[in-house]
Structures are given as structure tokens and as C-alpha cells.
């Protein structure tokens, strides 16, 4: 099973990808996680990525495409994968087509998660992250037991630069401008399914499983 999950920041595609990957025994490929690891490590690629991410802009294609190619060639992706956060532009989609052609592994289904902008802003502004262990919380929906402190490791929680309202709105504008044309791209290939992500998490997951098994 080879899937792509599309959707604006905060639509919940990462949560659904993690759950489905665990249930089906396939690999979740989250470019956002990989890039944040590079930022934390302070690599040259991470520094390039950080400047873009902090400003709510897309990371350059050459950085992202190289990361994805290496990941899909890894043994853990041999049984299948979910691409979460890639591709984000039609140029990246065309590059991905070339990678998958080399691997003889075409995409089975593209799921587009849809949510209105204002609920997304509320979701993302409330997120808090532990830099020490990577755990995530939300001030309204999943607060820590002690305000500002990670339940898992006791570290201090922070609001990521890309979870501030001005940056979030910039990210949503970038998504609208650069990523939504992908819907037409994959619709033309006959592999696109649109899925509302406004419902409760379990309801969205049930609809997701029905979509990918259809």
C-alpha cells in the first residue's frame, strides 16, 4: 500500500498517517519530522530549512526531494508507505513520479484532508512541543498535567515559531497558492479522494480506512 496524504497544516493528516501506518505495518514518511530533526541537529540542510519554516515558506525542492528519495529506498519502506507532507507542489509531484518509476512502485491512493482555515488557526496556535523528547500537547484539547511541563520527560514546553498565528496564516496562504493545484494533478490521474477532517478523530479514521480500502 502506497499512499499520499495532502492537506493544510493542522488538518490532522500526520495523526491519521501514524495510526494507519501502525495498523497496516507500513512506513510513515513525514518530511516535516525529518526536516525538524535536521534543524535541531544544526546541519547545513537544517539551517536552510529553518529559515523557510520560520517564515512559513516551503523548503526548497532539492532538499526535500533528496530526503524523500533516500527514505523510500530504505528497507522499512519496502512493504509500503504513507507520504505525509510531500509532495507540496506539482513540481515535487512530478519529481516523485520519477522516483517511484525507478522503484516500480506507483501510488495507490491520494487522500486530501479538508478543513476551513479558522479552525486550523485555533488548532495550531494552541500546540506546545517538548524540545527534549518531541512530545506534543495542546492548551485546550490535550493539555499537560502541569502547565508548561512535559508529562513524558519533565522538559519545558514551547510554542514553535511556525505555530504562531502570523506564521500560521502565512503557511495557509502558501498552501492555498502552491499545494492545492495538486488536487487537480492527482484527480487527473484518477487516484484522488477528498476527506473532511472536521469530524472527530475516530470518525475521520473510519472514513480514511474505507477510502484507502475502496
Structure description:
- The protein has 214 residues and is α/β, with parallel strands linked by helices.
- It has a single domain (2-206), classed as 3-Layer(aba) Sandwich (Rossmann fold).
- Helices cover 49% and strands 14% of the residues.
- The strands form two sheets. Strands 2-3-1-4-7 form a five-stranded parallel beta sheet, with helices on both faces. The protein has a two-stranded antiparallel sheet with strand order 5-6.
- A hairpin with a 6-residue loop joins strand 5 and strand 6 (136-138).
- The two termini are 12 Å apart.
Please describe the topology of this protein:
Layout: E1 2-6, H1 13-24, E2 27-30, H2 31-41, H3 44-54, H4 61-72, E3 81-84, H5 90-103, E4 109-114, H6 117-125, E5 127-129, E6 136-138, H7 165-179, H8 181-188, E7 192-196, H9 201-213
Parallel strand pairs: 1-3, 1-4, 2-3, 4-7
Antiparallel strand pairs: 5-6
